[in-house]
Amino acid sequence: MSRLSWDEYFMEITKLVSCRSTCLRRQVGAVLVRDRQILATGYNGPPRGLPHCDEVGCLRELSGIPSGQRHELCRGLHAEQNAIIQAAVHGVSIKGATLYTTTHPCVICSKMIINAGICRVVYWDGYADELSKEMLCQAGIPVERLNKEAP
């Protein structure tokens, strides 16, 4: 039996968090970690108390909006946004944290990651958003893809 690395361990937790998503297109999870301690988690879905997409339908699907475009035309928040908001609501500083996410952040989330002081991003699956990658690189934030073959 091989022991999971810390990155693999936190990514497995991130994948479990994604199972709470009610998005009809893509289930995404995010976990913020500092000093090997989980600070906050998030998954994609609508704001608290509003109907979920699996109940009322996907606005983006109904409008024929391709993945990676027109992020503002969606009922849901992204997993990364929800993790950052959860930390803020509970007064938890995430400066210097690592963000684990099942999908590479979009440009909107990347701007939040930069301003929140997150110092590293580890992701599982790619996402076609070149501006996001460029901005994270310019901000000096290391972005690492965890090998998809990992357990």
User: How large a portion of the residues is in β-strands, by DSSP E?
Assistant: 15-25%
Could you report the average pLDDT, rounded to the nearest whole number?
Answer: 91
Secondary structure: helix percent: 25-40%
Helical segment count: 6
Termini Cα gap:
12 Å
Q: What's the number of extended β-strand segments?
A: 5
H and E order: HEEHHHEHEHE
Q: How would you classify the helix and strand content by structural class?
A: alpha/beta
Radius of gyration: 15 Å
Question: Tell me, what's the shape?
Answer: globular
**Strand line-up of the largest beta sheet:** 2-1-3-4-5
Written overview of the protein:
This protein is α/β, with parallel strands linked by helices. Helix content is 34%, strand content 19%. It has 6 helices and 5 strands, in the order αββαααβαβαβ. It has helices at residues 6-18, 53-56, 59-62, 79-89, 107-116, 130-138; strands spanning 29-34, 37-43, 98-103, 120-125, 143-145. It is globular.
Question: What's the gist of this structure?
Answer:
By secondary structure, the chain is α/β, with parallel strands linked by helices. The chain has helices at residues 6-18, 53-56, 59-62, 79-89, 107-116, 130-138, and strands spanning 29-34, 37-43, 98-103, 120-125, 143-145. Helices cover 34% and strands 19% of the residues.
